Amino acid sequence: MYKVVNGRKRIFYLDFIRALAIILVVLAHVTRAFFQNSPAGSFNMCFVSQFIDFGVIGVPLFLMISGALLLNKDYELGDFLKRRYSRVLVPFLFWAMIFPISKILFEGQVATVANFIKMYFDSNFWFVWMILGVYLFIPIINSFIKEYDMRGVEYFLLIWGGVMFLNTIGQYPFHQLELSYFAGYLGYFVLGYYLANKKFRLSDSKLLVISLLIFLTFTFINIDYTITMCILKNKLLYYKYETIVTVVQSAGLFMFIRYFALVSSNKPESIKNRIYLFFKDSFMFKIIFSISTFSYGIYLAHYNPLFFLKYEYKILFTFNPIIWLPIMMIAIIGSSWFILWIFDKIPGLRNINGAH
């Protein structure tokens, strides 16, 4: 479960989830590029659309990891905000400056001051603004959890899950019943803490199977909706973050990875253990750990190689996605990681690579 790196004990399965999360975020953006460049109604268009249903859980996984690590902790309010905001804002301010330059160079955007400022605050970086807002509320929910422990967590999640269900079926009761405080991304933080710490009555082996079935079932529900909408409307539609489908899908994957690590650690010489050790104790760990460490930086930086490929090699996004989607993924993540790795070697640039 744990891995000591540079004298620090890290929870391996959380590093694995974080690395997977950024890969899924990039997958969502690459999928959208392939979808937009495929002929309307074509097989490629609807085939590639299903990958968005895996990509959509990248952001929830990021938030769940943060909740698992940040909640039910002792910290001073000012110190918490200073540390979290500096780690998010310093890299963001740099990469948000590069973002408009890439759009001007590769997308032909007009190079005016007004347009530059508009692109600086582009919605592509919505995740950053969202996380900054949620951080303001973390100390409050942290105190609530410390006071009420798991009963308080379950109380919050019960209401949040109900609101996510109402969002899914298109019923918004907020005008009559004030539930907007339970309608946002904060719930993923609480859910991550809950799933990382809750001791269920079932055995780890049973929870491993159940979580896999949950993940596969709700992934199928999402894929079925996406492909149906592609066929009927030629649009890329899917159950988004604030729906019960994506909540349960994300929870299922988080639980599966956690319990796979637990079961594998307790059963030496099993096939599960060999698979687990392949990722934890081989060269794969260096790859996973490095991607996990640079995950936030990869999120900020990956738009630049994506824009470059969409502009200079747009035709590649019309090719067979079975072959070219993985190639594009490797190219975008690899080039982003390499830039951040170079920055990490230069003392003056380490603060902007988003490493943690």
TrEMBL record:
GO terms for biological process: enterobacterial common antigen biosynthetic process. InterPro entries: Acyl_transf_3_dom. Pfam families: Acyl_transf_3. Residues 12-341 form the Acyltransferase domain. It is found in: Cell membrane. One of its GO terms (cellular component) is plasma membrane. It is a multi-pass membrane protein. The chain crosses the membrane at residues 12-31, 51-72, 84-106, 126-145, 152-173, 179-195, 207-223, 243-262, 283-302, 322-343. GO terms for molecular function: O-acetyltransferase activity. Keywords: Acyltransferase, Cell membrane, Membrane, Transferase, Transmembrane, Transmembrane helix. PANTHER family: O-ACETYLTRANSFERASE WECH. This is Surface polysaccharide O-acyltransferase-like enzyme. It comes from Methanobrevibacter gottschalkii DSM 11977.
